[in-house]
Amino acid sequence: IVARLGGDEFVVVLAGADAAAAERVAGKILAALSPAFHFDGHSLHTTSSIGIAVFPTDGETVEVLMRNADAAMYHAKSAGRNNLQFFAASMNELASDRRQLEEDMHLALQQGQFALHYQPQVDAMRRVFGAEALLRWQHPEHGLVPPPRFIPLAEDTGLIVPIGQWVLETACAQLAAWSLAARTRELQLAINVSARQFRQTDFAQQVAQALARSGARPTLLKLELTESLVLDNVADTITKMNAIKQLGVSFAMDDFGTGYSSLSYLTRLPLDQLKIDRAFVSRLPDNRSDAVIAQTIVTMGRSLGLRVLAEGVENEAQCRFLDSHGCDGYQGFLFSRPLPSEDFARFLEVRAP
Fold first, then answer.
1. Residue 150 is assigned to a structural domain of this protein
2. Domain range holding 72?
């Protein structure tokens, strides 16, 4: 029996199969899903994670077997995807923690536990021209929850959509507030957009409404997309990006260099900026491979008329190397960690000429 549970989750029931047989079938499924799928002239890459629960060892009822297979599947996801995992009793605790975290995220949205922190972005002259808004969760019992702890779960459960909507609305409200002061009225603000949020059919309307409600200037809002999001459905992505660009909003490709982009896609996408991933910045200027990659990204971006910003900059040596190759901007701990809005305002005051 093969059935779709909903979303991107499926269940396979093998009658009379032992663990070895289940593993063989799961391996065949992984192998079948690993190659790229060709659709409408595009290559689509997927990942799959499989959890296995065996009767009667892992449960004697459908409910228990399903719950344990689900726990094993999420363990496979956390192990890096594209693999399979058999259920183990230790996974019950992990599954329980996951369910609790999901419930807590629902409450966090309702009770205003999320906040945006702002990491400054500076140009080649070290002048602050904008910031990236980064999501933070202040849990009432556990304190600050690291984004890697809850963002993947929000993606898996779909909670990333309402969370992303909150980020969009809050960022636009912050832009509107900045417009009231001379020092901040020209600052750009970048926000990350998840694949699930971007794929909402009315996402362009959501952006337009958030801008209209807040009174923020569209030209100061920048949406950051990942390479994997962009390449998921290039034609649809371009159409949606163009609709949003008509509002005046700009786009950056985040973590550039870590995905699968090709020059042909870059020339078609209505981008304004490339962000060099911190993985290629952290070992500059000493690591030759990273130096070549960073230099190539800067040269390529500039040749395509795109501004290039380096993430994760931590020392002046990295800046000097990137300066020498024409990088346009920088973001990282060398200048500031992400700051609450009040601290960000004080940061600007200190740097004011």
1. yes
2. 2-89
